[in-house]
Specification:
about 260 residues; two-stranded antiparallel ribbon
Length: about 260
Amino acid sequence: MPEGQQIQQARRLWTRNELILTLSVYFQLPFGRLNHGTPEVMELARLLGRTSNSAALRLVNFAACDPYIINSGRTGMPAGIPVCKPIWDEYANDKERLFFEAQQIRAELMQKSIEESLNIPQTLLVGKEKETVIKQRVNQSVFRTMILQNYENKCAITGINVPDLLIASHIIPWADSTAEQRLAPENGICLSALYDKAFDRGLITISPDDYTITLSSALLEYETKDYFDTHFGSIAGNKILMPVEHAPNRDYLAYHKENIFRGV
């Protein structure tokens, strides 16, 4: 990019919509990936018509507003706090609204309808409230990105890193979660499809004390089967692979153990 154009971009004031879209990306990436070479940051820059360095800088400005980062002893770039803090204060505790509005902004920048930007076929909207379907798809997409990024695209039990086999599993199910819990990264674990189903059905649980895996008595009924040791016996007592940020919330794991797990 010509030097003159870079200077012009640097001087261009950030709009409210640009800040909303940037904050939505911030919440989906670990702190260590807020840099100009991260694909998601490059895509954000392209959508905004800004440089990747500019987008990355604004992301770390938001990090300077984040109590989680501050309490961990790290710092973002505080120079941007006066610009970013009002947006942070408005949306940090209302992420469903943030992500929905950000997707609307993204769709507009892509010159598409919001359902087109999410690849929602019209047949899926027939007989349903359009906004409800869209919000559900937005939340699913954001939560998946957030959790897979947090676990470096690996199953927390096996280390499998085939994206098509990975699922962002809720610890407290979506239907039972509060608005705050639904999109909290601490309420998610990246699991491959088999273990996602086992966790969801209470056949396995993860200890809130040491993050080790326990098999249920319902699952132990199959321990004489040829497949049992390979897929289940081998994981019993193992500690899950921990995420880059936002370890599973111990209270949420206790809820899973007490309310979903089918006993030992």
